[in-house]
Design goal:
heterodimer, A: mainly alpha, MetI-like fold, 3 domains, two-stranded antiparallel sheet, 2 strands, B: alpha+beta, Rossmann fold, OB fold (Dihydrolipoamide Acetyltransferase, E2P), 2 domains, six-stranded mixed beta sheet, six-stranded antiparallel beta sheet, 21 strands, 24% helix, elongated, binds adenosine-5'-diphosphate, binds magnesium ion
Chain lengths: 332, 357
């Protein structure tokens, strides 16, 4: 118990002065380890790096054999991702080349003998992805934290059964239920609606959020809230002022995991949407195009798709790192 | 500020009986101590009073009003918890301000600040006010938790072993400070401890609790001089009371091998009786009637604890100053027969009629 007291004076991190940790060999070893970590990280990053490069390649560069590492970057891929274009006939082409009202995107398209006729659906799909992921993550966290708090602090009849039921929703691969859900959504008018996907992702993430958050809230000694109760606060006020600030690490970790799930989900998004509520993951493969694979466009789409997830994870990284090692540290 | 009354409070946790028909009547402004070993039910008693735990049976009254169904916030108590009491991620100042900023109270900012400065001054933690609580030592933390109780004037202070995690020096000084504070603040205080010295030195009155039952209630003198049972007798007093079995024969009590013999006037004849002698009631002197061998000495400066071995019992005696008796030496000793304690073999106190107590 004493070991876990979070109110115990924190020890500052001290660089060890033990003889066996400052010599030449340990220093070498440390550098070696760091080097190994960097190499591993690079290997894991390679696909992402390659994808980023491809996003800025021209069409011939993207498919050249052997693959090109050095190339002239171009935004062609982004233009073909974000716009709809039509092929120009030879006469039109000459016409277009004389025009002076073309912006940089038109000019890039023109290089390939195409004229831009409007925005593509991809920006809309990306926006759908953001709306659906953010909303469903918010809902999962909101209800997850409340339920986890109740499970953690109150005597609930059949508590362990309930927790098991909640978890059991994740015990089969979700794809198994796509057909029934598809039929249900059809009947309920939820097909191709934002609400439909939000509900579905919230349902999937909620069980996860409840379990994860229960673990975090269990770790917060209930004496803090009790002190607040005695100090003249209601249960809800104590929850807001005392529990929430301490659960922030868990909330951050749960947020990232829930968001990434909703953000990446492909199968249901493909089955349950057609256009209005289509999200980015099923939208990307449909950019493959008719005249040969548009690798640059796909890579550009994937890159844009990655950015929100990276921003979120980066913003919460401090909490996240503490979050995933939480149990280990506390029980140590 | 209030009289606190518990009426036959019982509480079980599953199979575990935590409190069994506990009744207490704590007077206004009284410093009342609850003494008992770990697991006795002390914390549970405090939690029932604060409203953090609902009793299974019995009632709690503050002054004359029944508070059974009143939530903790509205009971207006201040609780110093055994552990985890400071809000993490808050500075000391914010911790002290927290109870004052409750929506139930409306102190203005200046008043809050004044009260915090006041309390900090009393507890000598003014220099810590801006510090995060994680960066405090144990003693400092304990002062802050006490501070959080004294920034306002609650109806009762509930203190759950607030000094138990401190080192001896600090404990002694805080003990005095607390007692002084309580007298100047004039707030009814229920102080819980498993430390008999703390209990005896601080209490106006104290209750001894064991296995969820009240064993004895009384002033420190009562408890020390007339322990209701061998449990209480052994719980209070260091070194602990000498307790041994005797047999009744010819109007006298004999230890088993007759090394000791006491007058049994006023006692009902019983086959076996336990006799208790406080170590300070044994005096080593050349005129003593009994004799024993010195087996060990523990010099404490102001006094020395001498371990004596009679033919049938080990006895502890306290002699003033440094004892000059040699280990192995046979000494004579006398027992202050006015201050003997008698118990049944079940451990119940027997009042000897006609024998001065
Ligand atoms: N929340 C609880 N759940 C189960 N048993 C408890 C709980 N709180 C206390 N107990 C039990 O009740 C008894 C009294 O506990 P407590 O009041 O904490 O004793 P003390 O404070 O005197 O050490 C102990 O046997 C303890 O195990
Ligand atoms: Mg306790």
């Amino acid at each position: 118990m004493a070991l876990r007291s979070p109110s115990a004076p924190k020890q500052d991190v001290v660089i060890s002065t033990r003889v066996d940790k400052v010599g030449l060999r340990p220093a070498l070893l440390r550098n070696f380890r760091a080097g190994l970590a960097v190499v591993a990280a690079l290997i894991m990053l390679l696909p992402a790096v390659w994808m980023s490069m491809t996003a800025f390649k021209s069409r011939p560069d993207a498919v050249s054999v052997p693959p090109k590492v050095f190339f002239t970057p171009t935004l062609e891929g982004f233009v073909s991702l974000l716009t709809d274009r039509r092929q120009l006939s030879n006469t039109e082409l000459e016409d277009y080349k004389q025009r002076t009202d073309l912006n940089w995107m038109d000019k890039l398209a023109l290089k390939r003998g195409q004229a831009i006729i409007g925005w593509s659906e991809f920006p809309k799909h990306l926006r759908n992805s953001i709306i659906i992921s953010v909303t469903s993550t918010f809902l999962s966290i909101f209800f997850g934290v409340l339920a986890a708090y109740a499970f953690s602090r109150f005597k609930i009849p059949g508590e362990s059964d309930l927790l098991f039921f909640i978890l059991s929703t994740r015990m089969l691969p979700p794809v198994v239920v796509t057909i029934p859900i598809f039929l249900m959504y059809r009947a309920l008018g939820l097909f191709d609606t934002h609400i439909g996907l939000i509900l579905l992702y919230t349902a999937f993430n909620l069980s996860f959020a409840v379990w994860l958050m229960k673990g975090f809230i269990d770790e917060i000694p209930k004496e803090y809230e009790e002190a607040a109760l005695v100090d003249g606060y209601t249960r809800l006020q104590a929850f807001r002022k005392i529990v929430l600030p301490q659960a922030i690490t868990g909330i951050a970790a749960t947020t990232v995991f829930s968001f990434i799930f909703a953000w990446n989900e492909y199968a249901f998004a493909l089955m349950l949407t057609s256009s209005a509520a289509r999200t980015a993951p099923p939208s990307l493969p449909s950019r493959i195009g008719t005249g040969g694979v548009e690798w640059a466009a796909i890579a550009a789409g994937s890159l844009l798709f990655l950015i929100p997830a990276i921003i979120l994870t980066f913003a919460l990284r401090k909490h996240l790192l503490r979050g995933v090692t939480f149990g280990a540290i506390r029980k140590g | 500020m209030s009289r606190i009354r518990l009426e036959t409070i019982s509480k079980t946790f599953g199979e575990e009986l935590a409190l069994s028909k506990v009744s207490l009547d704590i007077q206004d402004n009284e410093f009342f101590v609850l003494l008992g070993p770990t697991g006795a039910g002390k914390t549970t008693t405090l939690r029932v009073i604060a409203g953090l735990e609902k009793q299974d049976a019995g009632h709690v009254y503050f002054d004359e009003s029944l508070v059974d169904s009143i939530p903790p916030a509205d009971r207006d108590t201040a609780f110093v918890f055994q552990q985890y009491s400071l809000y993490p991620n808050m500075t000391v100042y914010e911790n002290l301000a927290f109870p004052l900023k409750s929506p139930l109270r409306n102190f203005d900012a200046a008043d809050i600040d004044r009260r915090i400065k006041d309390a900090a001054e009393k507890l000598r933690i003014t220099h810590l006010l801006e510090r995060k609580t994680a960066r405090l030592s144990g003693g400092e933390m304990q002062r802050v938790s006490i501070g959080r109780a004294i920034v306002r004037k609650p109806r009762v202070f509930l203190m759950d072993e607030p000094l138990s995690n401190l080192d001896a020096k600090l404990r002694e000084s805080l003990r005095v400070e607390l007692k002084h504070l309580q007298k100047t603040q004039e707030v009814t205080t229920l102080f819980v401890t498993h430390d008999q010295i703390e209990a005896l030195t601080m209490a106006d009155r104290l209750a001894v609790l064991n296995n969820g039952k009240i064993i004895q209630i009384g002033s420190p003198d009562d408890i020390y001089d007339r322990p209701a049972s061998t449990f209480v007798a052994q719980l209070v007093g260091t070194p602990r009371i000498n307790l041994f079995e005797t047999e009744f024969a010819g109007g006298k009590l004999h230890s088993l091998k007759n090394a000791l013999e006491f007058d049994a006037t006023g006692l009902e004849p019983a086959s076996k009786t336990l006799v208790g002698i406080r170590p300070e009631d044994i005096s080593i002197s050349a005129q003593g009637t009994f004799h024993a061998k010195v087996v060990l000495k523990e010099p404490l400066g102001v006094e020395t604890i001498v371990h004596l071995q009679t033919e049938d019992n080990k006895l502890l005696a306290i002699v003033p100053g440094i004892s000059h008796h040699q280990i192995g030496e046979t000494v004579k000793f006398e027992v202050n027969s006015d201050r003997l304690h008698f118990f049944t073999t079940e451990g119940e106190r027997i009042e000897a009629k006609g024998v001065a107590a």
